[in-house]
Amino acid sequence: MEYMIRFSQSHETFRLAEIEALAVLEGIKFQVTSYSASSPFCFFKTTSEDAAIRLVKRSILAKCVYEVWGTGLDYEALHENVVVTSQNVWAQYKTQTFKFFMDTFQGSRSIAEQRELIEEFRYLGFTGPVRMKKPEQEFCILEHWPFENVSGECPKPSAIHLGRYLGGSERDAIQKYDLKKRKYISTTSMDSELALVTANLTLASPGKLFYDPFVGTGSFPIACAHFGAIAWGSDIDGRSIRGKGKTNLYANFEQYDLKNEFGDSFVADLTNTPLRATTLFDGIVCDPPYGVREGLKVLGSRDPTKGKEIVYQDGIAHHLQAGYIPPKRPYSFLAMLDDILDFAALSLVPNGRLSFWMPTSNDQDEEIHAPTHPCLEMKSICTQSFNRWSRRLITYRRIPDSEVVASIARNRTPKGDGVSADDLNPFRKRYFEGFRPS
Amino acid sequence: MKVLTLNFLTCAVKACKSSSDSFPLHPKDCELVSDELEVNSALLTNVLTRVDWKALTTTAAELGFPTLPATPPTPEELAGDEKMLKELHTLLMETQINEGKLVCGHCGHEYAVKEGIANFLLPNHLV
Ligand SMILES: C[S@@+](CC[C@H](N)C(=O)[O-])C[C@H]1O[C@@H](n2cnc3c(N)ncnc32)[C@H](O)[C@@H]1O
Ligand SMILES: [Zn+2]
What we know:
The complex is a heterodimer of chains A (438) and B (127). With 438 residues, chain A is an alpha/beta fold. Chain A is 25% helix and 27% strand. Chain A has a seven-stranded mixed beta sheet with strand order 2-3-1-4-7-6-5. In chain A, helix 8 links the parallel strand 8 and strand 9. A four-stranded antiparallel beta sheet of chain B has the order 1-2-3-4. At the A-B interface, strand 9, helix 9 and strand 10 of A face helix 1, helix 2 and strand 4 of B. Chain A: Keywords: Cytoplasm, Methyltransferase, RNA-binding, S-adenosyl-L-methionine, Transferase, tRNA processing, tRNA-binding.
């Protein structure tokens, strides 16, 4: 039989990418037979009921999964199709406890209407008792109503499906990790829904080692830890990790009872990383600094002529004094993206994944292209659109060395010696210009 | 900072990366603490493929832990050996440097660890 995912109707471009990642994680083969960004119902084929359940159980953007018992453009067609599609299995459910419910996408039905529509399915011949709490089988009538109901005309759904409920998703985690209830956050913390989706796209799972080089308050490590991965994080700004008093990155792991999944946090600049140049991580997840709300800085002096000698103050080396803060200089966003790719190519295990967020203008001419690397295969690009700009989540797979095509030359942005943040970061410049035509 | 993390880190100075003296960093004046955590055998099996065993042996000795075997256990050996799992778990995951310094054996630079968080930012003359 065919199966159907009931998606949440939001973050449309992330939905199939998430399911495809979960299929890799679970080792499931599936094939989408009908899907559209404007519909929350995605039909697919897979090898078994169990596979369908496993495909969706960790999903954040799916709500649940059904076995499809029939589909039609109106009720008459639906009932006809239910008979053809599912009659051979009715007997299996004949005496089980069951219930029916309705899911009216973009529409609504009164209780009386619902009862009437449900009654129409009497011919299924179920004799088991109806049970509202924990029945053995749940059947759902799923209606898809047109986006805008033309008033005056007799309104009706444009498609109707009957599904046998198989299993739920991990969507409740969105509430659990809601930033409003989190102990330690900042203006750049990632909302829980998208952080959890990012963890799914990078295949975070028990026993794996994950890393966020721009960790901030730890949104991504928390999401990866939720799925059982052990997560490390670092940031050039020690204050973001330490927070204030007991409100800090580690406190978030304590709040969610994830101490066992905490790897470590340390202070470091990705462009001068202390991490060994070898395969250490199964996944790398991050939201690099765009240079809009937070500085994009790297170690070193703004002034390239500034001495490379040790600075002494009162006979003591300045850098050894308490409270010493090393100088930092602006850096190119595009060069930083290339640095992330280079780092991921070195640090990821074969088939390990990298996901990072990058902003882009909605104007096609100003679009910043997703960077490429010969050792990294792009798996998905997902877009979250705002008014004037968008941000994209790009996911790569580390191609095992034996499969890397050596002839593809690396084409990276020069590390850049521009001085002002605007010179180095076209997105920041356009952001502050309000994306006016240039 | 966990002993496992120490095994992942070397000196942040680029000129030191090629020197074998820059790894592992050497703990100095370190206060150790230990957090009780659940043994995660899937993680430890995974971790052993990433750990530099020779460096770990050095670190364990420097921190006063019993001498580690000369070679790491294979995944099969580890899976069947509760005692080995527990010992590695204690060393790698539970033991942490809370305060102290990590010293590069090549350039001598000292990285401070405060409240369990190590700082690898470099002064301008080392960038
Ligand atoms: C968009 S924020 C990430 C926020 C994080 N996802 C969270 O949950 O709070 C970017 C972070 O990158 C850090 N950063 C900027 N330049 C850096 C560099 N060169 N190396 C490492 N971190 C850097 C900033 O301090 C900031 O915390
Ligand atoms: Zn050094």
